[in-house]
Amino acid sequence: MIDKVKLTNWRVHKELEIDFSKGSNIIVGKMGSGKTSILQAIAFGLFGTFSELKKRELKISDLINRTAKENFSEIELHVRDIKNNKFTITRRIEANKSSEAIVRDTSGKLVAGPNPSSANFYISDKFRLDEELFLRTVYSLQNEADILLRLSPAERKRQVDELMNLHRFETARKYCVSLRNKIGERKKNLMEVLESENKVEIRANIDQLVRDIDKIKGENIELSSELKVVLNNESQFKVELDSLRRLDSELNQLMNSRKSIEKELSGIKIKLAGKDVRLTESQITINLKEYELKKSVISSSKSELILKKNKLEKQLVDLEKITSIEENKIVELSKRISEINELRQKLSSMESKHKFTELSEKIAGSKAQDKKLDNDYRENVAEMNNLRKHIQELETVSDMCPVCRNHLTHTTKDSLISERKREIANRLMKNNEIQTVQKRLKKDLEEFESSYAKQKRILETLELEKNVHSERDRLNLNLGRNHNKIEQFNREKQIVDSEIKSSEDELSLINKEMQNLLGDKYAVELKDREIKLSSELETMITKINLISFKPEELNNSERKYNLTIRRAQEIKTSLSGSKILVKEKELRYKELKDRLKRLAEFEKEIKILSEKIEFLGKLKNAIVEAQEVLRDDLILAVNEVMASIWLEIYPYDSWTSLRLSTVGKDYTLQLKEADGDWTNVAGFASGGERMLASLAAKIAFARVLAPSLNMLILDEPTHNLDEIAVRNFIEIVHENVSEFIEQIFIITHDERLAESANKVVKLI
Fold first, then answer.
1. Is 417 buried (19+), middle (13-18) or exposed (0-12) by CB count in 10 A?
2. Which CATH number goes with the domain that contains 302?
3. Which domain range does residue 362 map to?
4. Of 379, 421, 493, 697, which sees the most CB atoms within 10 A?
């Protein structure tokens, strides 16, 4: 049962709260007032969807009120189950975010959510139905109350089967047939493969491969033995060859060294030709050290002079910068003195018009006058508001004065209103005059304040005149001192430049003398080198003569070694090829063995598939049989409920019972005549009787398929009924339907339905 629904920004409703009762709940309103959206909210609150949303006639974003400032929609549903346990469902939709669903018990404890699937599972478990069953049994869309009577036989059978979930049996049957066909196709393909393979030939090939592999492995054993002998010879030949190569290399090195020494000796003799070495090497070294010492002392003195020069240049640059800055300051101060003289003249001119003290007094007086005018203006505004309030009170009262509580005639009342209106007009004129005066005062005040500020700035500047003259005199004195220093630094710099030049000339002379000494030293070193090389050459010639080596021995050794290498490579190549061939044959052997294994597996699978095909055939027949049994049981249960309902809701004795008949592949709603014959509702019953028969069928299906919810929702059920049929429907809903359904919701624009309802909700 639904106790309450609270909507926020849902469809056309910004804020709406409705309490529902047991029995009939009628929602009345004109087109576009949001009647259907309330039922949609109930369905969405319970299961998170409704028919229009499932059919994609609406999008989730369409559920949010378009005029709302907040970009979200919320449903709060107060529900109780068949055991009268109460709980609250809250669903929230927010643009560009995931939806939320929360279920709480009476204490406020969270029992499901915020994930919508969690909430849906909880509600489905509570009421033992899902959203599809709810929409098929409980919820009737607009103009769909008698839809079973208006559908074609095929479509009616489909919808009734879906209503009773029998379509799932049909789906299962079709799946069995499809799966059986797929398995049969797989079996056929496997049998074709088996027929195309020759197992005898495969086994013969396997035996031949085993013989070939054994033969190749025997040949490889013989080649491996030969390879060991060849590799042993190769090792011996390698030792011999290496020894001969070392001797050859040693001889070549000695011959090359001899040539190099002879060449160097020849070059030395050429260089020493015509050289007269006067000093010894020790004397040359002593003279070089003396020159190095002199060079070091002069270089040190030169460095000091350069540092002194750099310091003087830096002092000159700094002093010139300071001088330039002070000259610029003197120019600026002179300009400032001229400006001060001009300001003195300007101040004299301004004081002739307004003295500084007079301006201060005028500013204070203007501000005081403006403040008084401002107070007068506010008093007038307050008094006018009181007068308007009095006028309003006088206009609303009939014959009593709101102030003195005395009798008030129309003439007196009009006179009082006119008097107050005149007073308001006078005060408005006074306020206009006040604003005019304030504007003039504001203009004068701005002029006075501007003159005051200018004179103040001039006076402050004149006070600085003495300081400006003093600063200019100080700067002129510093400028004379700086010019003297600059002349002194320039004289010192010239002396230092002259000393640096003398040091550089002395260093040049010392470097020349040292170059001459180094030439004599080089000649002495060449003579010593000549003696040493002559001794080395004699020793090397002796070593060459002692070496015993024949080049043809090296050639023979290399030939034997190369022959053994080639043979070893031939054997290795042959062995490598044999290994590859063995691997290929072993791979082919494995492939054939795998093929035999796969064929055996195919035979086994064919047997299993045959068993599955037989089982699926039996399962299909069982599904068809179960579908028919369940259909008969459900139709029997529905007909029992529907017959009892019909006796209560049909007010006449023309038709004594109602049933759903299964004729061939169609479901037909039939009425029983008084004589016992059954007649189809479609084509024979009146509009009102058709409506009652459809309502009874709807209630019966809801009672049988959704007993835990015990609810019915009808959207515009009387759209095609005449006045008499509508009256009958009203009476039946009010007096009889509540015996079978705990709660019924009806959407209508016909206010007659509200006459005898348990709860009426009128929408504007």
1. middle
2. 1.10.287
3. 354-467
4. 697
| 475 & 403 share domain | no
Q: Which of 450, 467, 484 is the last residue of a domain?
A: 467
Residue 249 has pLDDT above 60, yes or no: yes
Greater confidence (522 vs 410) lies with 410
Cα-Cα-Cα-Cα torsion 58, 63, 66, 67, nearest 10 degrees, comes to 150
- Domain match, 360 and 456 both: yes
pLDDT: which is higher, 266 or 389:
389
CB 298 within 8 A of CB 506: yes
Total domains, the chain: 3
Q: Which long-range contacts (CB under 8 A, 24 or more apart) does 471-478 make?
A: 471/329, 471/333, 472/330, 472/333, 472/334, 472/337, 475/326, 475/329, 475/330, 475/333, 476/330, 478/326
- What tokens appear for 574 in the block? 């042959």
Q: Is residue 401, in this structure, part of any structural domain at all?
A: yes
CA distance 302 to 313: 16
Query: Do 316 and 390 fall within a single domain?
Result: no
Are residues 373 and 444 located together in one domain of the fold? yes
Indicate if 448 and 487 belong to the same structural domain: no
Question: What is the pLDDT of the chain when averaged over all its residues?
Answer: 76
Cα→Cα distances 250→485, 542, 556, Å? 82, 14, 19
pLDDT at 414: 78
The answer to whether 510 and 295 have CB atoms below 8 angstroms apart is: yes
Same structural domain, 492 and 532: yes
CATH of residue 441: 1.10.287.510
- Residue 622: C-alpha distances to residues 170, 346, 356, 403, 619 (Å): 12, 121, 119, 97, 5
For residue 16, being part of any structural domain is answered with no
Question: What pLDDT, on a 0 to 100 scale, did the predictor assign at position 569?
Answer: 85
**Contact criterion met (CB below 8 Å) for 426 and 420:** no
Of 536, 564, 593, which closes a domain?
536
Q: At 654, is the pLDDT very low, low, confident or very high (cuts 50, 70, 90)?
A: confident
SS3 for 539-572 is HHHHHHHHCCCCHHHHHHHHHHHHHHHHHHHHHH
What is the DSSP pairing of strand 100-105 with strand 110-112?
A: antiparallel
Could you tell me which of 445, 640, 536 has the C-alpha nearest to residue 261? 536
Do 421 and 316 lie in one domain? The reply is no
Q: Which residues contact 573 (CB under 8 A, 6 or more apart)?
A: none
**Contact (Cβ atoms closer than 8 angstroms) between residue 600 and residue 625:** no
DSSP calls for 254-266 = HHHHHHHHHHHHH
DSSP 71: S
Rounded to 5°, angle at Cα 64 from 63 and 67 = 135
Rounded CA gap, 138 and 747, in Å? Answer: 14
- DSSP for 406-424, please give it: -B--HHHHHHHHHHHHHHH
Distance CA 191, CA 176 (A): 22
Residue with tokens 């002998």: 229
* pLDDT 10s digits, 714-736: 777 776 665 666 666 666 666 66
* Residue 93 in domain: no
Within a domain: residue 107?
Answer: no
The 10s digit of each residue's pLDDT in 479-499 is 777 777 777 777 877 887 887
Is residue 531 located within the same domain as residue 564? Answer: no
